[in-house]
Amino acid sequence: MGLLALFRRQPKSANIAKERLRIIVAQERSARGAPDYLPLLQRELLEVIRKYVNVDPDAIVVTVEKEDGHEVLELSVALPEKKAAAT
Amino acid sequence: MTEIIVVTSGKGGVGKTTTSASLSSGLARRGKKVAVIDFDIGLRNLDLVMGCERRVVYDFVNVINGDCTLKQALIKDKRLETLFVLAASQTRDKDALTAEGVRKVLDELIAEGFDYILCDSPAGIEKGAHLAMYYADRAIVVVNPEVSSVRDSDRILGLLSSKTQHAEKGEKKVQEHLLLTRYSPRRVAAGEMMSVDDVKEILGIDVIGVIPESPDVLSASNAGTPVILNENSDVAHAYEDAVGRLLGESIPLRFIEEPKKGFFARMFGG
């Protein structure tokens, strides 16, 4: 082990735990109370969109938000960036 | 006014029963009339932790089914005058507990003038856990500073805000508190364990107690004496503080920092 390794600190496992939890808890909270068909809807929408644009599986987010009295189904698709030079 | 408190967690083995036994004993020691109910139907254990397993004649399901009166089923604690235990049934019938049955028992306890009813929830999110929290005014979510326990606690918090009577009626919110158990200040300082603040930040609710990791918990359950009654234990003091906070006292958290070692202890590895 080189001397430098002594100074290069490994990230503490508690911090890793906290970060992982922060993400999964936020994700699960947003899915909470949402209709059961949502994951399937998301998958099918992804398939349709991918026929036309090559998007990343994570690029589609479907959420249902309750706003005083009515529900809003929100669909967000992040399109891939255009290639700089034409190939 | 009777307050119904559920002790819950989602994950098993985090200390729900230990916590139920200690908080109920602590409240009774302060003169409150307390009933503690084991909702873990089929896996009765509160009686062992409280040391009254040989005095169980009738149980929770017997009362619901009308096999006996509530008075016959309540086990009076041998140490504390105002503490009563209602044991879980050992039946394998999953439908033994019903919402109406639970309501009937709670109403009768309220009529008897109990100050606090503690509901010791089973692990999981099945019927027993659901009914344990359904009528609660307050919830104590027991959590270990560990990923699976924290995640499960968040699930439980979600259920508390949607699947309880208060939530369904929309009249008021169940008051939620976190109680951290098996906390090791040494490991937190070393970055090996999430801190109280980390857990609080992720779950977003207030902390009513932090119980340090200690062999005293096992010794207490071995003996059938709630650990809060062991005057020489930090665990007992931590639970006693939590009881105070439950009663509205403002008490700073203790046992969350590593005790500072003196010069000699550091030199000679005390």
Key traits:
A: 87 residues; two-stranded antiparallel ribbon; 3 helices; 18% strand; B: 270 residues; alpha/beta; eight-stranded mixed beta sheet; 16% strand
Short description:
Chain A is of the alpha+beta class. Helices cover 45% and strands 18% of the residues of chain A. Chain B has 13 helices and 8 strands.
Account of the 3D structure:
The complex is a heterodimer of chains A (87) and B (270). Chain A is α+β, with helices and mostly antiparallel strands and 87 residues long. Chain A has helices at residues 3-7, 13-31, 38-52, and strands at 60-67, 70-77. A two-stranded antiparallel sheet of chain A has the order 1-2. Chain A is flat, with a radius of gyration of 20 Å. The relative contact order of chain A is 0.10. The mean pLDDT of chain A is 79. Chain B is built from 13 helices and 8 strands. In chain B, strand 3 (75-76) and strand 4 form a beta hairpin. In chain B, helix 1 packs across helix 12 (234-246). Chain B has helices at residues 16-29, 46-50, 60-65, 70-73, 99-111, 127-134, 147-160, 165-169, 185-189, 196-203, 216-223, 234-246, 263-268; strands at residues 3-8, 34-38, 75-76, 83-86, 116-120, 138-143, 175-183, 207-212. An 8-stranded mixed β-sheet of chain B has the order 3-4-2-5-1-6-7-8, with helices on both faces. Chain B is α/β, with parallel strands linked by helices.
Mean pLDDT of chain A: 79
> In which range does the helix fraction of chain B lie?
40-55%
What strand line-up does the widest sheet of chain B have? 3-4-2-5-1-6-7-8
- C-alpha termini separation of chain B: 50 Å
Low-confidence stretches of chain B: none
- Overall body shape of chain A: flat
What value does the average pLDDT of chain B take? 95
Proportion in β-strands of chain A: 15-25%
If you compute it from the alpha carbons, what radius of gyration of chain A comes out, rounded to the nearest whole angstrom? 20 Å
**Main sheet: strands, sense, barrel of chain B:** 8 strands, mixed
Low-confidence spans of chain A: none
How are strands sequenced across the largest beta sheet of chain A? 1-2
What proportion of the residues of chain A is helical, as a percent range?
A: 40-55%
Biggest interface, chains and residue tallies: A-B, 15 and 19 residues
